[in-house]
Amino acid sequence: MASLKELKLRIGSVKSTQKITKAKQMVAAAKLRKAQAAAEAARPYSSRLEAVVASLASKIAGGSGEGASPLLAGTGKDDVHLLVVANSDRGLAGAFNANIVKAARAKADELIQQGKTVRFYLIGRKGRPVINRTFPGMIVAQFDTTGVKEPGYAQAEEIARELTNMYLNGKFDVAHLFFSRFKSALAQIPTEQQIIPVKIPADADRNAIGATVEYEPSEEAILDDLLPRNVTVQIFKALLENNASEQGASMTAMDNATRNAGDLINKLTIQYNRSRQAAITTELVEIISGAEAL
């Protein structure tokens, strides 16, 4: 049984931890409002741009006509798949990072069973240990975000440029982006999105614009400009969604940790009081016994 001194030290230690988790919860809650607003503001733009690109692509012989951009037409192969896994650099966010990695691992296992070659491109560092242990030697590159406080368009441009260069140099045939879509502070949804080449829905032309449009310059020329921008925008959206999801998961995790610390403090306090009462009772018995002996 722990001594009174040990119990007192444990109570003090848990109280210190509770102060830290409470402070981190409040910080995450403050950051969440801004991150959520940014993520929600990016959704209409990214989805509309994706729809316009798909509509234009559907006009070019199904997206595989002569002169179509490689970002649209593809390499003509489906052998090498690059899984772009967006994680954070920090922990204390519950299962936020683990869920994204789990989705990427499931996709990698599926592709490997189909005989495909799988490679990983990592954004952030939290997912690296698990992926490197599960798929050794398959990480081809990593984008360092340790110095980035909030995701910006510049980082998305840099990532998109690097991925596009890898694609044009024949490093992979298809790129899948994995991130966590923000739903609420309690729910973040691991999401997969094919970003290279552009995936064209069957009803793209009907749903995107809804009217007959003549383009100047040609659809091909417009797509040559929009396709790289679309990759950047989709990555930027993913980074914003991830940031909001991370703050929501962190706030929830720290709230749970604060509550658990409070419960532990109550239990330790009861144990301390009982032990102290037992010690006082023992001392009183000893005093009374000594007085009677006299």
UniProtKB/TrEMBL annotation:
InterPro entries: ATP_synth_F1_ATPase_gsu (IPR035968), ATP_synth_F1_gsu (IPR000131), ATP_synth_F1_gsu_CS (IPR023632). Keywords: ATP synthesis, Cell membrane, CF(1), Hydrogen ion transport, Ion transport, Membrane, Transport. PROSITE patterns: ATPASE_GAMMA. It is found in: Cell membrane; Membrane. Transmembrane segments: none annotated. It is a peripheral membrane protein. F-type ATPases have 2 components, CF(1) - the catalytic core - and CF(0) - the membrane proton channel. CF(1) has five subunits: alpha(3), beta(3), gamma(1), delta(1), epsilon(1). CF(0) has three main subunits: a, b and c. Belongs to the ATPase gamma chain family. Produces ATP from ADP in the presence of a proton gradient across the membrane. The gamma chain is believed to be important in regulating ATPase activity and the flow of protons through the CF(0) complex. This is ATP synthase gamma chain. It comes from Sphingobium fuliginis (strain ATCC 27551).
